Amino acid sequence: MEFRPVLWLAVISLMASVAQSADFSLPASGCPMAHCENQMSNSINRIAPVDGTTLTVISHDTTTKGSNIGLGCSSNGPGNTVACTLDNGSGPNLVVYDGIGHTRWSSSLLSTKALSSAPIVGTDGSVIAADGNVVIRFDPSGNVVWQTPTLGGTPISPVIVQGTSLLLATKGGPVSLYAINDGHLIGSLTVTDPGTARSYDTVNTPSVNGSACYISMQARFNPSIGKLVRVDVNPAAVPALTVKWAFAFGGPSGGSPVYDAATNSVYFDAAAVTAGSGGPPVLLAVTDAGTTPVLKWTAQLRAKGVATGALDPRGGVWWFGEKVQYLWRFDETNGNVLQTLDVSALVNAAGTYVASSPLPIAQTPQGTPVMILGSIDSAGAGPSFIICLDLAPAAGALLWKFKVANSTFLNAGYGQFPIVMTPDGKVRIAFTTLESGAFFLGEP
């Protein structure tokens, strides 16, 4: 057979391209996706800047708008890449930065609905993002690896299942599954009540336990009827998505469900224990018994939940209620309160201060947990802040606060706070706000 070096090189190039597109690994730290990892634990798993006396704005991209109330940015931590979904009208609605805050590339292929979905950042800097029309995988340089039309609805952050599939849950559309190597649609599922016309969708990101995905859903035209649904994923089966069990509760739920492998339980907020009832709002713990859910405990919240809580590395799950100044750490085994933090007292500013974001947890250099979150004046007139709290003292301690705006009405931080490292080892906290483009905070 005649040897054709040019043809052989082309084959090698094609094989390399296929291999590259098939490989998408999630970093173990930095917060590379919605709520930082597949279980929605909000664990950043990195050391945070904790010295408020040297904290400064390293970079602020004023050429873009913010993420509205979306999660905003994700990061691959030591990989020196931050990706943010933004509210920029015709675009770009996806901007990718290095750890210093310099723009690497951006894309206008996504609509403003991308802001409802945190991007996923791979170990090598690859990015996956979705809007109401498409889900796209980009390589580290911003080239499109694949682009696939979705089946409608507003996406609520994609998650990766078993390293090979991408699950997308939506508000106003079905749950759908895509192959991570080439983006082809594997299957879809609309959750319904058997024998009725009632269907369900979600405003929350699913949490993942192997091939099981837990989605807190609500009836499409009656959000007071809620269901925590376990959807099993098997790309080789027909259908690829099946409902294993469903647990009824009073909807809606304001935060993504958090799965803890240590207790084999899912933690999520509900507007009420009973579907269709009027409250009071609660935090629920449901154990996955395989073929059925088992209610482990309920704990009353002072107001409805509006964001995802967090697993504390010392044990316990953090949660809070809308416009309530307290954060509570609940015992995962029985729902008892282990710790209470008064956000308003810790912020120590005129007004009543409450959490305005999820509750991501990082560490000090000594290994004790710290929480980074947005805080706003519940009345709206006072300033808005990003704060960092030391969780070790029983009452907590304020390590630093960064003023976002002189008035909460004008601007505030509602998203998550990934931590990125530059090649020379500098640590940066990246985030967006309601109106302003990406900030990078750090020590000089």
Describe this structure in words.
By secondary structure, this protein is mainly beta. The chain has one domain (27-442): 7 Propeller (Methylamine Dehydrogenase, Chain H), CATH 2.130.10. Helices cover 5% and strands 42% of the residues. Strands 1, 31, 32, 33, 34 and 35 form a six-stranded mixed beta sheet that branches. Strands 17, 18, 19, 20, 21 and 22 form a six-stranded antiparallel beta sheet that branches. A hairpin with a 6-residue loop joins β34 and β35 (397-405). Residues 1-20 have low confidence and may be disordered.
Distinctive features:
444 residues; mainly beta; Methylamine Dehydrogenase, Chain H; disordered N terminus
Total domain count? 1
Main sheet overview = 6 strands, mixed
Task: Estimate the helix proportion, in percent.
Answer: under 10%
Number of strands: 38
DSSP helical segment count: 2
Can you tell me the CATH superfamily? YVTN repeat-like/Quinoprotein amine dehydrogenase
Q: What does the radius of gyration come to?
A: 21 Å
CATH topology name, in short, is: Methylamine Dehydrogenase, Chain H
Gap between N and C termini: 62 Å
Shape: globular
Quick summary:
The chain is mainly beta and 444 residues long.
Architecture blueprint of SSEs:
Blueprint: H1 5-22, E1 43-47, E2 56-60, E3 73-75, E4 82-85, E5 94-97, E6 103-107, E7 120-121, E8 127-130, E9 134-138, E10 144-149, E11 154-155, E12 159-161, E13 165-168, E14 170-171, E15 175-179, E16 185-189, E17 191-192, E18 199-201, E19 207-209, E20 212-219, E21 222-233, E22 241-250, E23 258-260, E24 265-270, E25 282-288, E26 293-300, E27 310-311, E28 317-320, E29 326-330, E30 337-342, H2 343-347, E31 353-355, E32 361-363, E33 369-377, E34 384-390, E35 397-405, E36 419-421, E37 427-431, E38 439-442
Parallel strand pairs: 1-32
Antiparallel strand pairs: 2-38, 3-4, 4-5, 5-6, 7-8, 8-9, 9-10, 11-14, 12-13, 13-15, 15-16, 17-18, 18-20, 19-20, 20-21, 21-22, 23-24, 24-25, 25-26, 27-28, 28-29, 29-30, 31-33, 32-33, 33-34, 34-35, 36-37, 37-38
